[in-house]
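ingest -> fold -> write
write: protein_1
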Amino acid sequence: MQEPEEKKIALELLETEQAYVNRLHLLDQVFYTELMKEARTGKTVPEEVVKMIFSNISSIYQFHAEFFLPELQKRMEDWNCNPRIGDVIQKLAPFLKMYGEYVKNFDKAVELITAWSEKSSPFQELIADIQKRKVCANLTLQHHMLEPVQRIPRYELLLKDYIRKLPPQSPDRGDAEKALEMIFMVAKHSNAAIAEMERLQNLWVVYQRLGLEDDIVDPSNELIKEGPIQKVSTRSNSTSEKYLFLFNNMLLYCVPRVIQVGAEFQVHLRMDVEGMKVRELKDTEFPHTFLVSGKKRTLELQAR
């Protein structure tokens, strides 16, 4: 008798889960534990830094090792009388939201490893020593740390495959489809968390370039576009270099600062998007010009 296709995929899920739990054990019980022990001696790296690198890996490891893997193992042993995994994955799905924190922290963690490896040779030596062990399979700490980031997409793929191979009348179809939907939502949740973090980081960089003016710094603003522009002066029939930042709620008309200390730009004019009008001009002498009118002022600008 050949194994049914859906059982092969369920077994693949179990096998990859076992390998994944070993990887989490390595991250939490070996790297994190040993670096933490070393940090407590106070010679290598602050404890806080180690905690920041590994984020909530301990919770993730415990969840998979003590709950999800045993549940899957039990289910696969009973497969012949209960051929289903959809319900088990439904129990898993809500806990995958824990990954949001880990994934959001990942880039920062990698930066910290690089920075502290340069700063502290005992820190670098301890990591190198662990990486030499057989259990690391010649891979770096960063490589092992990537595994949790890739795990949720992997569940999604395996489950899609599993549903595809299920016989139409399978009693597991409803549960498996619901589980896939839940995992999809979790993946979206963790991607949204990363996107939001990136948006805030980029926004902060823009505010620094503008000199952190109090009335401009607002986390809910969204930067839509920025770039150099020429200001047309009809009086002197010439143009001068300016810079625009367009947010969802305001347009900042700026002048590049000559002395590059602190802020990069000085805000000359702030125009509310509400009530702002933009009109193209047909000017043969200055092509690509347009008027931007706010409540108080109108600017004649020329694009490249």
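write: protein_2
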Amino acid sequence: MLQTVWVSSPGSWALRGPACHRDGKQTSWKCGFVRTIIQHPRPRHDTKGPRKARMLTKIQICLCFFFVSGILYEISLLSGCFFSYVPMSKHFLTPEQVLNLGKSIIFLETTDRLEPPPLVSCSVESAARIYQDRPIILFMKGLTNDTVLDLNSSYAAFSLLSSMKNVFIFPLQMETVFQETPLLQWYNQVVPEQEKNWVHVSSDASRLALIWKYGGIYMDTDVISIRPIPEESFLAAQKSRFSSNGIFGFPAHHKFIWDCMENFVLKYNGKIWGNQGPFLMTRMLKTICNLTDFKGTEDHSCQNISFLNPQRFYPIPYPAWGRYYEVWDKSPNFNHSYALHLWNFMNHNRKVVVAGSNTLAEKLYKAYCPTTYEDLIQNAEVRDFRHSEEDV
């Protein structure tokens, strides 16, 4: 802990606290305590002397406060303990500052809703638990810089997610996101009101721009994380020879993502669902790779891009999406999976997790997003029951 130590000689003070330095050419850091003394000229003896001395003291205290705050921030980054300080300061960070920390997990909400449904909350919470050392960012189109939402928000899911130390919720400002990418020209020309699939198309574009600019992993808001993904540059096979864009990861400024953005604009057709999404990823992958069928649970690789087996994220294929909301005699173990895609587009929010139903989805919620399960499902049903009794 930093300490401010005042020295007896007039006009001087010292700051004592931890400091880190590199040990020669080694990559490790060594920390100790430094003592910095700042000398100030002795004030002249005049009638205003005492007032000037008090003012100087106040200035020194203010400078000391800012210095200590900066040191704490730097130490937290160097020590890998950034998120232990986040609850007090994360609401003052900008999207760029968080994204520049690197290796973010990015989620997008391109509707205007401000209350994330339980599946969205579960997806974000499960990622926050699996990737505790990485920023988890939820961009919401419905938020603006003037929107006042905090831990005491009336939106239960928003409050739940905001309380997690490595979860950040920011407004999705597309014009800013598309700056310095091929997508900006397209965005300035397109008319959202005339686009049949605008919610999906704008999401397809935003995820490409964010991953190209900052790197990391993009995930759909119906993906439940169950173990860390070991790959840095990867696409997720939905089936043999066909790529999803519901989850993918790349380092910043990767050529494949830039090429995808250029093709997005060149081949744009908003009337065809998925043309700028999974079909875009598939056709771009085919230009550089000779795609073959998967056999067993092996992954494919091409030009340093891993094309991950369907078992990694889609062990239950989309025609069987309803099985997540059924009771299984014996639940699958998903030993070959990193995350599970629950196909909410196919579901259209018709089926939901119900406490006590013993469905596969309920078991996944209990295991990987227990706070969402307890706060948004169990407690909601208790509240609904109480309200029904009061009505009677």
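write: annotation protein_2
Residues 90-312 form a domain with the Spore Coat Polysaccharide Biosynthesis Protein SpsA; Chain A fold (CATH 3.90.550.20).
Confidence is low (pLDDT under 50) at residues 1-41, 71-81, 84-88.
pipeline exit 0
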